[in-house]
Amino acid sequence: MSTVLLVILSVLGVGAILLRLARSTARLLVVVAEGTAASGLAEVSARRGDLTALQERRHAAARLRRMRRRRAGAVLLWLLLLVVPIILGEAHRIYPLASLLWLLPLRPVRGT
């Protein structure tokens, strides 16, 4: 009976980790797209000679680069949480605990 419960909790834990990984990956992709757009707009401002817009867009691009690093770190964290327990042979302990992630609220995936 307890083995069945652990298997169910493990499946729920892996599902929760996969959901968080997918959402973090989506957030990373949104930030990468926004960063590409901001860099392109900065180039357009430079060609036009609009120094104020160029400075604002460079600032936005730098902010998006920082966000991209944070989002990539989150993706790496969820990926490690998915893979490391298997490598260490501790999946039967970690994944049932990860089922508690279902209780935490999810932030919406959106741009900046």
Give the SSE layout.
Blueprint: H1 2-48, H2 51-88, H3 91-98
Helix pairs in contact: 1-2, 1-3, 2-3
Task: Name a few traits of the molecule.
0% strand, 3 helices, single chain
General description of the model:
This protein has a domain at 2-32 and 64-103. 83% of the residues lie in helices and 0% in strands. The longest helix is centred in the first third of the chain and has 47 residues, at 2-48. It has 112 residues and is an all-alpha fold.
N-to-C span: 47 Å
Low-pLDDT residue spans: none
Percent strand equals: under 5%
- The ordered string of helix (H) and strand (E) elements is HHH
Summarize the structure.
Helices cover 83% and strands 0% of the residues. With 112 residues, the protein is mostly helical.
